[in-house]
Each structure stands twice: as C-alpha cells, then as structure tokens.
Amino acid sequence: MRHHDRVNDHPTTQRAVTAVPLARRLFAELLGTGLLVAVVVGSGIAAQRLSPDDVGLQLLQNSTATVLGLAVLILVLAPVSGAHLNPVVTIADWWLGRGTAGGFSAGHVVPYVAAQVVGGVMGAALANVMFDVPQGLATQQRASGPHLGAEVVATAGLVLVIFGLSRTGRAVLAAPAVGAYIGAAYWFTSSTSFANPAVTVGRVFSDTFAGIAATSVGAFTLAQVLGGIVGVAVVLILFPRESPHD
Fold it and tell me: What is the pLDDT of residue 7?
C-alpha cells in the first residue's frame, strides 16, 4: 500500500517491489483483493447466521475478521506488489511518487486497478460458494448523504495512515496500523468504511450482510476518490518531500 531517496515504502522499499515481475505483482493484487473481499463478505455472512438478532454483534464480528485478515494480507503480499489492494492507494502511490526515481509507474496503474477489481468480484463469488449463498447482485442501497460523507472521511484517513507512515520511515507498522484504522472506521463512520473502490465493486456480487447495490457504487466510488484526493493533500501538508525523512 503505498522511491529511490524516499524511505521504506509499505512495508518494503518501493525499489524492491518494482524489481518483481509485473505479472507476479498483478497476481498478488488480484489474489489479495479477492481474499480481502472474501474475508469481508464471508465474515458478514457468518456473523448474520451466528447472531441473527443482534446487528451490533454482527458488525463486531465482521469488523474483527476484517482487521485481522487485512493485516495478514498486507504482511504477506507487500514484498511482492506493495499490497495496495485498493485503486485509491495505487493512484495515490503513483501521484506522490511522480518525478522520483523508483516511484510507482504510471503505466502500471491501470493493470493494478484492473487486477484489484477482478479480484474483488472473484472474492465475493468465493464467499458465496463457501457459505452456499446463491450467486447474485446485492440489493442494499447505501448511497445516502451521510454514507457518502463517511466514505470521504474513511478513505482520506486510510491514505493518511499509509503514506504518513511510509514517508516517515515507519512502513513496518503499516499492516497493523491499516488493519486497526479500518477496524475503527467500521464503527466511527456511518458507511462502515468501504474506503476501497475494488472492494465496493466486489461487494455488489453478494446479496448478504456486506452487500451494496450496484446503483450505489458510482456515488460510493466518487466519494472514495474524493477522499483519496483529500488524503493526499493532507499527506503533502504534514509530510512534504523536504522532510528529512524523505
């Protein structure tokens, strides 16, 4: 999730990641995003079945599984692809690294995003299979004003956590920090913190606790992109290139 003279990126150096063949990196992004969505959707289904009369407990179970699963996926896949697992993170990594040797290549943005989106869809389908849920589209409408505002906040915070750590030499903490932030954002945002366009698209393909109707995806994605822009702006204010850690 996240340059020659910049400190360690998330959680290995960007230069080490760019030495990995692109095909392997794309497979890691597809696999990682797919497993992330499988964790989110699968734990949502399990929570709904285990605690059918307690929505708060369902959310606690869902968020706990997501925190743990996300942290593990980042730790395992970061040395291969950087473990972006999120189009907003990929775009932010490219933007923040422009003009620096070893920065994320503009030519890899579209392949990364495509792998993430495909992986997200496959992850939802996998969760459906594991829990014997019919394959189909979600019907839960989520695109209210408060939900969209929450997505801006959630995504901006995520970008700040990732690149704030990256630009100050503390990328080794990114996996637990990102997991903890997303876990907290499940509870302090009204949208339960999707904060990820690929995960948003993936969750369309499971009409379960974690699903989102296709008609809500466009607005959610726009809110997440806006949140990414806000997050990058805050990162540049707090951690400018002139920082002695860069």
Answer: 34
pTM value > 0.85:
yes
Residues of the chain with pLDDT under 50: 1-12, 242, 245-246
Helix axes 55-81, 22-50, angle to 10 degrees: 170
Calculate the average pLDDT of the chain.
92
Residues with Cβ < 8 Å from 80, sequence gap 6 or more? 17, 20, 24, 25, 28
The contacts found for 236-240 with CB under 8 angstroms, 24 or more apart, are 236/96, 238/160, 238/164, 239/163, 239/164, 239/167, 239/168
Within a 10 A sphere around the Cβ of 98, how many other Cβ atoms?
10
pLDDT confidence of residue 15: 59
What residues does each domain of the chain span? 14-238
**Rama region for 12: left / alpha / beta (φ>0; ψ in -120 to 50; rest):** beta
Of 13, 18, 41, which is closest to residue 105 (Cα–Cα)? 18
For 14-238, CATH number out of 1.10.260.40, 1.10.10.200, 3.40.440.10, 1.20.1080.10 equals 1.20.1080.10
How much is the pLDDT for 246?
41
| 3-state secondary structure (DSSP) of residue 211 | coil
Joined together, the tokens standing for residue 52 give 């059918």
Total count of residues recorded for the chain = 246
